[in-house]
Amino acid sequence: LTLNGSLTSVEIDSRMRLADLLRDKFGLTGTHIGCGTGNCGACTVRINGRTSKSCCVLAVDIDGSSIVTIEGIGDEENLHPVQEAFIEKHGLQCGFCTPGMILSAIQLISDNPAPTEDEIRDSIAGNICRCTGYVKIVEAIKDAAHRMAEVKV
User: Strands 66-68, 6-7: parallel, antiparallel or unpaired by DSSP?
Assistant: First the structure.
């Protein structure tokens, strides 16, 4: 598989979930496991350019795929515009849902560069946040869409 831009391989138990593979075998702990049933969105990653709940995907099913986690979209010196917007617009509090929210926002903006507030809310409906009330998250995503349109990310 290609993981955050690097070709890699690993032997696994056929029952292992993708979320566990990322966390336990690769140390990518930004992929959080909340509910374990795909309802909370904390485990959201991108598989072949589309968001997916990694707690609901068997790791054997991603053989040959391209996976992007939160660790693969930016670093401390070079944040992704969505990460910058979440920080500047205070779109996070405890941070547990943030990686999944950010990856979902990137998916939305890549599909729809100028989303409305309703479209933003609809796109993050599969990501549960217990802290913010979503207002600041929506503002951050709207701001990120403007940033990305300006730089054509």
Answer: unpaired
The DSSP letter of residue 58 is B
CA distances from 79 to 74, 85, 110, 144, 151 (A): 5, 10, 17, 12, 14
pLDDT < 70 regions, the chain = 152-153
Show Cβ contacts of residue 113 under 8 Å, excluding neighbours closer than 6 positions.
145, 148, 149
Beta partners for 67?
3, 47
Q: How is residue 54 annotated by DSSP? A: G
Quote the radius of gyration of the chain (alpha carbons, Å). Answer: 15
Among left, alpha and beta (phi > 0; psi -120 to 50; other), residue 8 is: beta
What pLDDT digit, counting tens, does each position of 112-144 carry? Answer: 999 999 999 999 999 999 988 899 999 999 999
Residues 6 or more apart whose CB falls under 8 angstroms from that of 152 comprise none
pLDDT the model gives residue 46: 98
Q: Return the axis-axis angle of helices 135-151 and 98-111, rounded to nearest 10°.
A: 50
Distance between CA atoms of 60 and 22, rounded to whole angstroms?
A: 12
Query: How many CA atoms lie less than 13 Å away from 77 in the CB half-sphere?
Result: 0
Hey, what's the torsion of the CAs at 84, 88, 94, 95, to 10 degrees?
-10
